[in-house]
Design brief:
Elements: E1 2-4, E2 10-13, H1 50-63, E3 77-80, H2 87-101, E4 104-106, H3 118-130, E5 136-138, E6 158-163, H4 166-179, H5 190-201, H6 212-217, H7 227-232, H8 239-243, E7 248-251, H9 255-265, H10 293-302, H11 304-326, H12 331-349, H13 352-358, H14 376-385
Parallel strand pairs: 3-5, 3-6, 4-5, 6-7
Antiparallel strand pairs: 1-2, 2-4
Length: about 400
């Protein structure tokens, strides 16, 4: 890490130590492929036997021939990392791309989570440029500040973000805060929150939900209306104008597909987008069907801009897929190859800490908090083992 900057120290995480993250797997069931239950294009379930998984991946790797394209990287970019949308996963993938392509991954002056003001971005970016980086990137929490983009090196940086259906996002955030480390935001005692979740999972009623609208959606910030729009809109006033600022928009509900389309669009390799699961809360929280209809209706009525953004993102991914196919990319083949590679990553690295210890690595060298990446050494090993290295 470099410690530079006038007045106060500007912290930059060195790109060589950027590491991968694992995804905040959706606690609401999503439609995308899951590396824990991958299937081939023929619909045959992949074997749980690790050797079979590796053999399958190598067979796919031997026949997968991507269309030759020129990569857009290295280049400066800003990934606007929203809250409870799977952004931790994508930030980890993008930080790994920083490491692979020699870009600077900026971190805030204070803490590691988010940017507070434009001046902080200016100072840390200046420090990165001063020590020789030509391309500067952001992939932390923090609302988009258009005027700060000019500090990320020469030219206009690429702009990315990710969206999630507002009902899924609100429920994820609500129950995370109800039983998690931020439960103070809800004003509900820990045990009461856990009892509520347990009751809903058992098909029983929870009296806390009777006040759902009052102590959650009426709030500001992460608990407020149209939170995604507020995070990503910059200076724009409408959902469409806000959306059109972005060069690529990922979707939680189409997670793996988004990654593959991103890879093809920007001339990356499959190894660049490999990831591990983290913060996997699948099945932990109640789903939409467990909630009172009036609560779901209230969420939709309170998040019309976020709903519009979600529709725009779906349409954009469909158009991107069609465009790439017309250019000659084998999208289906890339999806199958990615699934095979991810199966090996999951099989080899699910317990990455044990893998690190077994191979004599110090995990602290590649782990800088839950929101900034883990398991990168094992992921790189697994990708090579699968034949995609």
């Amino acid at each position: 890490m470099f410690l530079l900057g006038p007045g106060k120290q500007a912290a930059i995480q060195c790109v060589q130590s950027c590491s991968r993250q694992q995804p905040e797997t959706s606690d609401i069931v999503r439609e995308s492929s899951s590396s824990s239950n991958l299937k081939t294009s023929r619909g045959d379930a992949l074997s749980n036997n690790v050797d079979d998984v590796i053999r399958h991946a190598r067979a796919i790797a031997a026949t997968y021939i991507p269309l030759e394209t020129i990569t857009a990287f290295p280049t400066s970019f800003w990934f606007v990392k929203n809250v409870k949308v799977g952004g931790t996963t994508l930030a980890g993938v993008l930080r790994a791309i920083c490491a692979h392509y020699g870009m600077a991954c900026l971190n805030p002056l204070e803490g590691r989570i988010g940017w507070k003001k434009e001046e902080d971005i200016r100072e840390v970016a200046a420090a990165a440029l001063a020590v020789g980086f030509e391309h500067v990137t952001i992939s932390n929490h923090g609302a988009y500040i258009p005027s700060a983009a000019r500090y990320l090196g020469k030219g206009k940086p690429l702009l990315f973000t990710t969206l999630r259906h507002p009902v899924n996002r609100v429920l994820s955030a609500y129950f995370y805060n109800l039983i998690g480390s931020h439960r103070s935001h809800t004003g509900v005692p820990e045990q009461e929150g856990e009892d509520c979740v347990a009751a809903l999972q058992a098909g029983k009623k929870c009296k806390l939900l009777e006040g759902f609208e009052d102590h959650y959606v009426h709030g500001d910030g992460v608990f407020g209306r149209n939170h995604i729009f507020k995070y990503i809109h910059g200076d724009e006033k409408t959902a469409r104008d806000a959306f059109q600022q972005y060069d690529f928009v990922f979707m939680t509900e189409r997670f793996d597909e988004s990654l593959v389309l991103f890879m093809l669009k920007y001339g990356l390799a499959l190894r660049d987008i490999a990831y591990l699961k983290m913060k996997d809360r699948s099945g932990t929280y109640p789903r939409e069907e467990d909630m009172p209809k009036k609560a779901i209706d209230f969420i939709k009525e309170s998040n019309t801009l976020d709903l519009e953004l979600w529709d725009l993102a779906n349409a954009a991914l469909d158009a991107q897929r069609d465009s790439l196919s017309k250019e000659g990319h084998d999208v289906e083949g890339a999806m199958e190859a990615f699934a095979a590679m991810q199966a090996v990553v999951a099989a080899e690295c699910s317990d990455y800490e044990e893998w690190y210890e077994k191979h004599g690595f110090n995990t602290m060298l590649t782990y800088w908090g839950r929101d900034n990446g883990v398991g990168s050494r094992c992921i790189m090993h697994a990708v090579k083992l699968a034949g995609f290295g």
